[in-house]
Write a structure and sequence with these properties.
Blueprint lengths: L2 H6 L17 H5 L12 H6 L6 H12 L9 H4 L7 H5 L6 H14 L5 H13 L15 H5 L7 E4 L1 H6 L2 H12 L14 H6 L2 H18 L3 E4 L2 H9 L6 E4 H7 L1 H4 L7 E5 L12 H10 L1 E2 L18 H4 L1 H12 L8 E4 L2 H9 L5 E4 H9 L1
Parallel strand pairs: 1-2, 2-3, 4-5, 4-6, 6-7
Helix pairs in contact: 4-7, 15-17, 17-21
The structure holds iron/sulfur cluster (SF4) (2 copies).
Length: 375
């Protein structure tokens, strides 16, 4: 079939209603020269061993879609099982950015109505309830009525709590806000999901509505700086929100205020897991290490910083492919050095996935370590 025919319809001239819209950056797709370097680093390929779940396989499938393959459910196991960890992009000698291409392809598939049930459930939870879990209780349920009534209505600084800390780890939210309140930080009156789950799984238009809601809330408070303790919220607020916001991760904020925090030394040895969306995607490597080393001894994992292996939780994979997701977490636990008291990380999704993998060493969020050093 000629390219023009592919663009306009099928060989009989009929328009294929499911034809993939041509909104994926072709240059980005064609940068992939199929060298296979990414084969040795893709954590999903490492876990499942299918060529179609390897970065190179995903890029080939996307290329075939651009060249006329009708979008169908057949491509979902490949394209929906990428955690968007980004290690392939970091290693690609040709400068391709596969997670960006995968996200763009997912968005086009959504437009064609090709989605998984897990993706649809996630979207509907965020759109209906404002959070990725479909929770109906108030997002600030972890604060008492009195605490809520005393929240400053205006502040230059806002703590963006995120769905995970609001509903799965309210104890992290309480500890984080307890520290941040000392610095005059407030909460949004009506925070909703940051839109990361929608963006990573391809629901771009729905994501825009949620982002607009949060932006209106930020304007209402008059905040110029957003602090967040979730790696997914961090990268989304920083890189996907349409307006320039100053976004700081909790480890960066803590590292900047170490003196004021007056932390005591603890007789502990811990290791640190770099969340992909904080580390590789945004290069926040030093701040969490600075905070940890102000408190106790840090013993590094086997693969760190740019080489850190994914916990398996991102990109909608935890919900869509729980077995693969857990396998990745189990693989990551193999990188933990011997004789450490805790595995520390800076993302609640990493905490959850690594905890679910069931290792012997307790996984904690960095705020828990800091809270121990404050008490
Ligand atoms: S994405 Fe990059 S590393 Fe992977 S096959 Fe293509 S060119 Fe090679
Ligand atoms: S982003 Fe991670 S999971 Fe996705 S293709 Fe690249 S290496 Fe594999």
């Amino acid at each position: 079939m000629k390219n023009e025919e592919r663009k306009n319809g099928n060989e009989t001239g009929e328009k294929n209603s499911k034809e993939l819209p041509f909104e994926i950056d072709r240059r980005s797709v064609y940068k992939c020269v199929q060298c296979g370097t990414c084969r040795s680093v893709c954590p999903v390929f490492d876990a499942v061993g299918w060529e179609s779940a390897n970065t190179r396989g995903r890029m080939l499938i996307i290329k075939s879609l651009l060249e006329g393959r009708p979008p169908s459910e057949d491509v979902l196991p490949s394209l929906a099982s990428c955690t968007t960890c980004g290690i392939c992009a970091a290693k690609c000698p040709a400068g391709a950015n596969p997670p960006e291409v995968v996200e763009a392809a997912r968005a086009q598939l959504v437009k064609c109505g090709v989605t998984t049930e897990a993706q649809e459930n996630l979207k509907s939870a965020v759109i209906t309830y404002g959070n990725s879990f479909g929770e109906t209780k108030d997002r600030k349920h972890w604060l008492s009525e009195t605490e809520r009534s005393k929240l400053p209505e205006k502040s230059g600084y806002v703590y963006f709590v995120g769905c995970f800390d609001s509903y799965r780890y309210p104890e992290f939210a309480k500890k984080t806000f307890g520290i941040l309140q000392r610095f005059g930080v407030t909460l949004l009156p009506d925070e909703q999901c940051c839109a990361s789950p929608l963006l990573r799984t391809g629901f771009k238009e729905d994501a825009e509505k949620v982002m607009k809601h949060n932006l209106d809330q930020i304007k209402k408070v008059g905040a110029h700086t957003i602090i967040t303790s979730c790696a997914g919220c961090y990268t989304t607020l920083k890189n996907n929100y349409p307006e320039e916001l100053r976004v700081i991760s909790l480890p960066e904020f803590l590292a900047e205020h170490l003196e004021e925090l007056n932390l005591k030394k603890l007789d502990l040895t811990v290791t640190y897991h770099d969340p992909c969306h904080l580390g590789r995607h945004n290069k926040v490597y030093d701040a969490p290490r600075k905070v940890i080393q102000a408190i106790c001894t840090l013993k590094e994992m086997k693969n760190i910083k740019e080489n850190a292996r994914c916990c398996g939780g991102g990109g909608g994979v935890r919900i869509g492919y729980p077995d693969i997701s857990l396998e990745l977490a189990r693989n990551r636990l193999q990188d933990v050095p011997e004789s450490v008291d805790y595995i520390v990380t800076s993302c609640p999704l990493c905490v959850r996935n690594l905890r679910d993998a069931g290792g012997d060493i307790e996984v904690i969020d960095i705020v828990e370590l800091v809270a121990m050093a404050i008490e």
